[in-house]
Design a protein that fits this description.
mainly alpha; 67% helix
Amino acid sequence: MATSATTSAPLIEKHTIGYVPPEDRHGKVRDLFTLWFGGNIAPLSIVTGALGVQLFHLNLVWGIVAILVGHLVGGVLMALHSAQGPQMGIPQMIQSRAQFGSLGALLVVLIAGVMYIGFFASNIVLAGKSLHGVVDSVPVPVGIVIGALGSGIIGIIGYRFIHVLNRIGTWVLGIGIVVGFGYILTHVQTTDFLTRGGFNVSGWLATVSLAALWQIAFAPYVSDYSRYLPANVPVAATFWTTYLGSALGSSLSFVFGAVAVLATPVGMDTMDAVKLATGAIGPLMLVLFLLSVISHNALNLYGAVLSLITLVQTFAYRWIPTAKSRAVISIIVLLACCFAAVGASADFIGHFVDMVLVLLVVLVPWTAINLIDFYAIHKGQYDIGSIFQVDGGIYGRYNPQALLAYAIGIAVQIPFMNTPLYVGPVSAHINGADLSWLVGLLVTSPLYFWLASRDSAYRRRLTSGKLAGSL
């Protein structure tokens, strides 16, 4: 489904965090499949998928089952967020003001922004190392800068260009990973390919959690890439195209990592194992993955910039950010990340991944609150004008019900956590499996629904007809 604006939409995006009016809506719902399929075929997902057999000692069959279960479950939450985009026409983070209030949402927006910057910085390091691996004469610091510039150009151009690149990437990377699977499975270099590892409950649960959290990490920005679609796009269509693209693309990458390390001697680095296992086509695979890192990392920069703009606009509410503002902030973030990445320790990626795992603990309750509020409480009907008011309009500066549910949602996860900062007693008892995300969802969702349903102020707004979803 598309509008007449589809063919005339400018390549360089002019909107930032503002509402996208009907005349500027464009694109087709199938673009969401290619965005999330192509975007998930990348080195970081391959490395993460390999952990099921490397770190948690599952065999191939149980590793694949755990990967599929995690992505199929986590993908539901991710796709439900995506379906909000066409209905709201605004970025995900600024929409959080409708749940938490104009000032209450600041913490969540800040956390999301830090997470995006962490992913962006980690991926430019990965891009630098990948480029050095492909061309030895290119030093890693130079590769980092090249990777950052590539992602920066894509992020500055914005929404439409990101979708265009991932339409191309879906075919190129999709064919590439299928060919890679074929080569590895016909050139297995180990005798224990099917027998290495086994089944253990803690390892299986840990792998499921890794896959589910991979999907949940997209939740704070997934609807940013559906908000330009026409408002009459069916919710089901947005959900299924996003869900199938993300679950399929990420599952393929996770399984590819597991297959590559099982097909090569024990102890190899995952990307070295990929290069060895794919033999003659190994250099080509590395080039494809390098391009994927650069393209996908533009989403992290784009999300970070929208979050920063949202933070500033909360206080400078008369400011109307433009494409120029987005470009300037993108350059500032890019330069800061390059400086940090080039001068950082060798374990830069590991430190940032650890940080992201901690941040996910505080994003899970946000996911629950946002989805319950959208689908069960407000049923997609919001006053967009209030969201952009300094006092929060009908949503106020703070929403006590949301903030209380959010705090409790974080607290109940603590015994089940397994992060570099803290390992909870339950997680330690089950050999490190992190089930905090599941507990956070199961507690926060009904708690927030109960608290919001008892909010008499909300009921008065609803019955007075102010929640009309209009500007």
